[in-house]
Design brief:
Order of helices and strands: EEEEHHHH
Strand content: 5-15%
Number of domains: 2
Structural class: alpha+beta
Strand order of the largest sheet: 1-2
Number of helices: 4
Low-confidence stretches: none
Radius of gyration: 19 Å
Mean pLDDT: 93
Shape: extended
Distance between the termini: 51 Å
Oligomer: single chain
Helix content: 55-70%
């Protein structure tokens, strides 16, 4: 089976067109973003990316999205799992 390649628009490298290398984006024809995960992460860690995130979080839309996430079942499930792992780790350290 031959895997299709996709060229990253930022770095220009051709990589397999899979969610392992590209984030998902339902609005694109192939269902993947135009930039690879490495370039996306590099941008998010840059000052420009951090500033963009700050602006979004301070906007009304960002605040509303944050409230929805804090009340979501997905977050509650994550917190329960994290708490379990934390308690197990703490118990193991206490047993030593």
């Amino acid at each position: 089976m031959k895997i299709a390649l996709k060229k990253c628009s930022k770095c220009g490298e051709s990589k397999p067109a899979t969610p392992e290398y590209f984030h998902r984006n339902k609005s694109n024809n192939d269902g993947l973003r135009y930039d690879c995960k490495e370039c996306s992460e590099r941008y998010n860690q840059s000052e420009k990316g951090k500033e963009r995130t700050r602006r979004y979080q301070q906007s009304d839309k960002g605040k509303e999205s944050n409230i929805k996430y804090r009340q979501s079942d997905k977050r509650k499930k994550y917190q329960r799992e994290y708490h379990k792992k934390y308690q197990q780790k703490k118990k193991q350290e206490g047993a030593k």
